[in-house]
Amino acid sequence: MSARWPTVPEDFPKAAARTLQDSQLRSNLGHATTAIRAKRAGVVGEVPDWEALRDEGAAARDRALRRLDEHLVLLEERVTALGGHVHWAPDKETAQRIVVDLVRGTGSDEVIKVKSLLTDELELNPALGDAGITAQETDLAELIVQLGGDRQSHILVPAIHRNRREIRDIFRETLPNAEDVSDDPADLAEAARVHLREQFLRVPVAISGANAAVAETGTVAVVESEGNGRMCLTMPKTLITVMGIEKVLPTWEDLGTILRLLPRSSTGERMNPYTSLWTGVTPGDGPEEFHLVLVDAGRTTVLADPVGRDALRCIRCSACLNVCPVYERTGGQAYESIYPGPIGAILTPQLQGLDTAPTLPWASSLCGACYEVCPVKIDIPRILVHLRGRVTEETDASGKGHHAGAERLSMRAAGRVMSSRRAYEAAQKAGRLGLTFVQGGRGARGALPGLSGWTQSRDLPQPEGSFRDWWRQREAGRADGDAPPGAAPHGPGEDA
Asked: How many angstroms separate the CA atoms of 362 and 403, rounded?
């Protein structure tokens, strides 16, 4: 069973400082994200109307969110009419209870699972374990994380922080008949395949997530690369699908757009190797019983924020993670949430509450690379800045503070200084004088009161003259009839 996430995540700077000490992790991440970036860039470059397709994807997701209530009611009607059962879960605890009760109702004490971020967000595996039900992950990366008692560090590749030698050691310790497995990828895959095949054939209940559901037909969709998902979706007698309410799409055309964007953005492939679609139940074909659990768990709260709601467009492709310089160096576990990277920095605080994860909106350089690659054009930097403002205002107003109170006072002081030319110039001189003492801003001098929050992770520049000083010198030179300092030299053919 994979390890639980903390109820209250550690502040990101502290967690990042710890993971930055792991040179093997940084090496594994750097190698993997570089390869994924190159592969994605190649297949995206093949699509001449890629930007128009991104616009279309963003519009499809916005259409779904604007009339979310109507689409969900229609989805329920269609699924029920076709022999399925729909359950509504307003929060994590309700979702856990519904799924546990459904599994118990089958009489089984085992389930097989398709990779699902939502079930990880809901901590469904620990809840099933507490109820005496064994949950077996069937996605290879999820299996590695589960066997290692580890936590995921990437949306798409949960075990991206592990190299194949580490995986070999995990398999040798935990999988039956794998004591002599080598670190060759084919041998590792075969060991996992032998272990899982017996369970596909034996376990009568499967649990999946959903990449999307089409309201007009009641169809649910799951995409994956290994075929394990299709085994789970077709062989057991009972299928339980747990889906966030934001995943509904109005029409098949919208699903088609998303399925064009998703594989190129996530795995750098032209299409998904396995795309499974099912509508209710069909006698003699697939599961005999189908349950769809629709989960809110904070999503309607996110929807109420006019800026933050754009995060609900996310189709979980992980493209933003693979280009993020912060993620590449710290790894996903520093975010202490199932959603790491730039999308996690805006999703987790909104889903769990700003007081629970107040430092994540600062886990970014605001370079904008995440926005440039997002297939549905989520303006992540804009939402990060918006959430920083909310943390500053709302957590301080609640009395829980963190550093919000000090930051607000600092911003007020900066505003007053910058509104006065004399005060601004005096502050510049004082700042340059201060920089001569901190000498790079690290170590004991960098830990001066009021500076440590910046200098513990940043180098301060060496003091130089200000632009205003340079300008005064330039104008003074002109008044004296001298060539102005810094003037451009004469070019060829110009009069001297």
From this structure: 12
